[in-house]
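Journal club side-thread
Mid-discussion, someone asked how the predicted structure for our own chain would compare to the paper's figures. Pasting it here so we can look after the session.
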Amino acid sequence: MSNPAVTVIGLGEMGRALADALITAGHRTTVWNRSASKADDLVARGAVRARTVEEAVLASPLILVCLLDHDVSDAVLRPVADALRGRTLVNLTNGTPTQARTAEAWATGHGVAYLDGGIMAIPSTVATPQAFVLYSGQQEHFEAHRETFEALGAAKYLGADAGIAALYDLALLSAMDLMFDGFFHSVAMATSHEEGSAAGFTELLVPWLTNMAQLLPAFAADVDSDAEPVVVQGLDVVLAGARNMAQASRDAGVRADYFDHSAAALEKQLAEGLSTYTAPEAVRRLRTAS
């Protein structure tokens, strides 16, 4: 039995990577993009270029959408609602949980099976062991196409709530963005010294962060547990560190906004009578921050 046909709508860098992976896996792959020339290399590899969105939808039982945002995907998909009926629509466009749930409600109302997803990869790592893709929505829709999804990267089903893939996607991206911001800040500090270099400093930073990442499962266990936290630091020690990082940043000519804010928050906790710094308390305060 041949691999099922798949349509990919949207041929930005990520959409082209998805289509390329499907072609490589042996799927009859139909592609559509507003700028038709973006399909040229894929057509040369065996993809079928659709002239219209409706033609693209009618070509396959499984439709993958990867566009700029949900406003764009809505504008592309709503006019072809009748053509989508009876098919499975997987929206891999980055968006919020609320947008995912709204899209599912619209799709379901038009007789369309819907899954929302988040691609945890960059285009060059799609279909490699480093890539994984999050999916949420009705499990029967996911199971029906699991083998096809595995061509893109490890397929991770999160649950029936269509919004959970978007939630996890954006949460994962937020961790990445904050990590990159931390990297840029630390490099700005290190290279303020005349003998400092970004490359030399990064040789120290990568193993340090790799080691510190080993603490994350322990933090997570504390957050999930009702017992007393296992990983505990003195709040006064953490505050002293925040103050020092703020002052060292300023001395290096680097903005210290984050550490000033952190120090102020820790001072407030000390004033409230807290003496320890733990993962559950840090998460709780983020949830209740005004």
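Post-session note: The beta strands are 6-9, 29-32, 48-49, 62-65, 88-91, 113-120, 132-137, 154-159, 233-234, 276-277.
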